[in-house]
Design brief:
The complex is a heterodimer of chains A (145) and B (290).
Chain A: E1 3-13, H1 16-32, H2 37-56, E2 61-69, E3 75-83, H3 91-94, H4 108-115, E4 118-124, E5 128-136
Antiparallel strand pairs in A: 1-2, 2-3, 3-5, 4-5
Chain B: H1 9-20, H2 22-30, H3 33-36, H4 43-63, H5 72-75, H6 78-90, H7 95-104, H8 107-115, H9 120-163, E1 168-171, E2 174-180, H10 185-202, E3 206-213, H11 219-234, E4 238-242, H12 246-255, E5 263-265, H13 268-285
The complex binds adenosine-5'-triphosphate and magnesium ion.
The site of magnesium ion has 5 residues of chain A, from helix 2.
């Protein structure tokens, strides 16, 4: 999907202050790329959810933000959250609305998936989790606008 | 100090020189930006501050702990060094620039040491010792400046926490919290406490939580909001959430967040209108109590 990577930003996810930085940087980068307000809000909200999962469930890690564009010349942002935590036992269940092993609302993972265009989870028990999401700018055909 | 210093003569040479030439060096220092810029009222103040630093350095030299930032001598001037570095920071200097200004203080004593009597060996050792002492002073200043910064940041964080969560009484028995900034766990705890106190204090039956200033509503923020609403209800006040901006509303729907039975309104004004309507309905419904 993503050819031609242009810029990569890597940020730590180790504490609450890092979560704030992640939200702010993602918002700035989305603005710079010309994302509309609704799209910015969706991407920042997904980033907030996923970074918090990295911190709370994954024991901390990092996020990289890549400006990407595809063959049709669409611009987008890919966010990749990595941790070396316990991994997710059952991804299908974790992706169910309301499923939480930590007394949360259980909407973070499933909700984030609905907020973006591309979503993938790569996890191995005891080794960690990588969640990668992409939102294309001004893409109206399906999914979020 | 009656202890015999471990490095023997070099330490006592430096300590003696710093004391003998105290007046002279302090006068020279008083004209350097580090002292000049801080003690703006009178020059005497700057000279006095210089004397204090020299006495402290002499004591550190005597104690033989020239490479120890925890040497007791430094403790006497920490506050003063903090004041100096803070004032230089306010003038727009970076920590690196302040460090260079402290380094520049070394020149005057070094020259006096050069001219001091004694054999060459002793003078070289005294010079080395002075360099080491100055290097330690520089670290002490940097450390004090960083500590000062940390305290400022922490103070501001606390102030923000308090400042960003005022509860205002809008009407008889009606309070409102205009929330500003991210509602993380620490913030929402403060919000909840302040709100519950205000409900008791004003005997409120309604509370408006306005989230116009909240940049992101994710599942944790939603959870905090709902907990706050539930707690307010236990205290006898119904909550209305206002100021959910269109982009946030769309995002919340897609994320699957539902504020449940909580009444929401687009703006604070709408929420106020609703609250007043409800109050007048209640007044009609229930027999007047007064
Ligand atoms: N990075 C991760 N490492 C390990 N487990 C994870 C990770 N991310 C998610 N999970 C698991 O998936 C579950 C669902 O995640 P989701 O974000 O949907 O809910 P939650 O974090 O528990 O609550 P919230 O609604 O507050 O986000 C989590 O409870 C956790 O068990
Ligand atoms: Mg989550």
């Amino acid at each position: 999907m993503s050819t031609d990577e242009r810029a990569t930003v890597s940020l730590p996810v180790r504490n609450d202050a890092d979560l704030m930085t992640v939200r702010q940087r993602v918002r700035t980068l989305a603005q710079e790329l010309g994302f509309g307000l609704v799209q910015q809000t969706k991407l920042v909200t997904a980033a907030s959810e996923l970074a918090r999962n990295t911190l709370i469930h994954g024991g901390g890690g990092s996020v990289t933000v890549d400006a990407v564009s595809d063959a049709q010349g669409r611009d987008g942002l890919t966010l990749t959250f990595r941790d070396e935590g316990s991994g997710i036992t059952d991804v299908d269940r974790a992706l169910r609305d309301g499923y939480s092993t930590a007394g949360g609302l259980g909407m973070g993972l499933s909700g984030s998936k609905r907020l973006v265009h591309e979503f993938s989870v790569d996890t191995a028990l005891g080794e960690g989790t990588t969640v990668s999401v992409t939102l294309w700018r001004g893409h109206a055909s399906h999914g979020p606008r | 100090m009656t202890d015999v210093p471990p490095v023997g003569t070099a330490t006592s040479v430096v300590a003696r020189l710093l004391r003998e030439k105290k007046e002279h060096i302090a006068q020279l220092w008083a004209d350097q930006p580090l002292f000049q810029a801080v003690f703006t009222v009178t020059r005497d103040e700057a000279v006095e501050a210089g004397r204090a630093v020299l006495e402290a350095l002499a004591q550190v030299a005597e104690s033989g702990r020239v490479d120890d930032i925890a040497a007791p001598g430094f403790a006497m001037i920490r506050q003063q060094l903090a004041a100096m570095s803070t004032s230089r920071t306010r003038s727009g200097l970076s920590i690196g620039q302040i460090d260079r200004e402290v380094g520049a203080l070394g020149a005057a004593p070094a020259e006096f040491l050069e001219d001091a009597s004694g054999d060459t060996d002793e003078r070289v050792r005294a010079r080395l010792l002075w360099s080491e002492l100055l290097a330690t002073l520089r670290v002490v200043v940097i450390e004090t400046a960083l500590q000062e910064n940390r305290e400022i940041v922490e103070r501001q964080r606390q102030q923000l926490l308090e400042m960003a969560t005022p509860v205002v009484k809008l009407w008889d028995r009606l309070v409102a919290v205009p929330l500003i900034g991210m509602l993380d766990s620490a913030r929402s705890q403060v919000v909840m406490e302040n709100l519950l106190e205000a409900i008791v204090e004003h005997n409120a039956t309604m509370a408006i939580l306005d989230i116009t200033g909240v940049p992101t509503v994710d599942s944790l923020v939603a959870q905090h909001l709902m907990k706050t609403v539930a707690a307010a209800r236990l205290m006898g006040a119904d909550c209305v959430i206002s100021g959910i901006r269109p982009a946030i509303a769309q995002t919340m729907v897609q994320l699957g967040l539902d504020l449940g039975p909580v009444t929401t309104r687009a703006t604070l004004a709408d929420a106020l209108e609703l609250a007043l309507e409800r109050q007048s309905e209640q007044a009609k419904g229930i027999a007047p109590r007064h």
